[in-house]
Amino acid sequence: MNESQKDLQHKLFVLEYPQNEFFMIQDQNVRITKKSFSCQMVSGISDDLPKQIQKFYKKRHFLFKKFNEGILLDEESWYSVIPEVMSSHITNKLKISSPESDIVDGFCGSGGLAIQLAQLFKTVICIDIDPIKINNITKNLEVYQSIARVIQMNFLEYSHNNQDLILIMCPLWGGLNYLHQPFDLNSMKPPLQELLTKGLQMTDKIVLQLPKNIDLLQLVNIFKNVTGKLRLKVKPLEVEMMFINDLYINYVVTIPYMDEEFHLDQMQHYLDSDFAYWNPKLTTPPMLYFLNYPFILLLSKMGFSTLIACRIINTFIYPIITFLVLSKSFQNKQKALLFSILPTIYFYNFLFYTDTLSITLLSLSFQLLQSKYYFISSIFSLCSVMSRQTNILWIVYICIKDYLDQNQIKLQFKDPRLSITFHLNALFNMILSDLRTIIRNYIYHICILILFIVFLYKNGGVVLGDKDNHQLVFHAAQIMYFMPVLFIYFPINWNTLFQYTQLSIKRLLLSRNAKFTYLIILIICLEIVHDWTYIHPFILSDNRHYVFYIWRRILSKDIYRYILCFIYALIIVILSRILIIRKEQTFQLILLFIFTTLSLIFSPLIEPRYFSIPLLFFYQHCQFAEQTLKKQITVFTLINCIIVYVFCEVKFSCDFPQCRFMF
């Protein structure tokens, strides 16, 4: 035996051994393997459970995916049952090694492992001395439509005739207080030595569930003593360590956060084939769950929980697709990257929200429309609307924009000297002359619009589900809130921005026309803020959002609200000056502003993520210097790091299950 092998004998706990290696302990060949699982947790409490069990209740869908269909658990089972994904992993390994064996589960409990075994093995016998556990497992087998023989008796008194047998032993370890170091295997009731003696007399295929903090040396000694007394041939021991873990946000935020709770609940019902269920708190259509369904099934089989699987798809698949699509649409990878990491967009990639998918589908639809794949574009347009209803406005916009892009030379839209009336007249005449072509190209998108109108009529409004908290209101102040965001996110060199600002202020001081224009804009801003500011109850009560603090400390005070109107008006003047000097397409900018206004002014909530799609099309419309884009990418990357760090590491007390800062 070499020195490293000798050193291993002095280690106490199995956790301290290297994984996936064979080595000798007391002349016993031992292999330790490792398997990691991500735990799905959902918020909520049960009035029927004591306080120390509530944390297990949050893992209810990790323990049993069909928990809501009538799973029975007594208090002891909450912390002793083997979670479904781990049980499935064990069952699959046994099926590969011994596909025709009988199964005897000597301490079946409420059936976490036995249910999975019964789905793959022909003969499964479930034994437990506790009548409550027998009642639980009988009911739980019915929920999963699994067939097994259930016997109430002491396992030590059981005998089995078939020699081709796999014995499962998951004895209780001593309640919630087993975590003292190290765990004494002799403290088990019945003692491990007695269990192994009984088990090895029945079969040499034994699966034994033990705490992770066992003394491995003690386990080997007990095993050797039993095999020696029974005069059995010594076989290798395989110890598989099962860990439940996540990564960073998933590691820190282990239960669904805010709206994730509703989305995950709906996803879980779909995974359980309950397609008739609808969570009353959801307000958006079910495309998020339909598209994710096959991917989450696949990831679940790989050992990921539903929550982590949903977040993985949102974090990696959809943002990458969006970046690739926008790289082609923008014809500029840096601009596509910059949009992909906008702080208000990037943050939601880590959570199971609809925003990431909505942007991906709309981007695909727009790019396909530009490439003249009208029918395929309409499919993605429909999916986009079914992920977020307000995308119907942007479907109309991309069709109009696509038509204008094809005819911009004829209309001379790049000439800012031409009046808006001229453009409207020219556009109207062109539509009349091209009506047949328009219908042929956009007929599928027109059908989507008609279907949406029918939906509005049948549904009685845009919102599904929680209509009380998401009523449409006229909230024109949203445009005022959008302007500073557009100004901050506008990719322009800071020196150039400063020069434009100086130029705009200079014109205001020297030009009578500029003063008059600014005054009109200022009056409109003051009127909007005074008469059309809507205060949603969520903004006043939910202190997990940055907007809560902006409202509470600034916007809720009249003096600050009206002072900000001077800034809003100045931002509008500066941005207009920039776009005019750069000879951007005036008419298309006005069109974009109209659709941006329509998409925002009926939303009661102040949510920075609602600005994402307007920003997408502003980015698509304008051209920016490469050097400026690189600087903005650096700045946004730093901001994103700070936002994610604050979300994960800065916690505070509030009236909700979890309290973290977010947009």
Q: How many β strands by DSSP?
A: 8
Side-by-side strand order of the widest sheet: 5-4-3-6-7
Beta-sheet strand percentage? Answer: 5-15%
Biggest sheet layout? 5 strands, parallel
Helical residue percent?
55-70%
What does the radius of gyration come to? 32 Å
Shape: elongated
User: What's the rounded overall pLDDT mean?
Assistant: 81
Number of helices: 30
The first-to-last residue Cα distance is 59 Å
Low-pLDDT sequence parts: 1-20, 245-249
Would you tell me the structural class of the helices and strands?
Answer: alpha/beta
Protein name: Dol-P-Glc:Glc(2)Man(9)GlcNAc(2)-PP-Dol alpha-1,2-glucosyltransferase
Membrane topology: Multi-pass membrane protein
Subcellular location: Endoplasmic reticulum membrane
Family: Belongs to the ALG10 glucosyltransferase family.
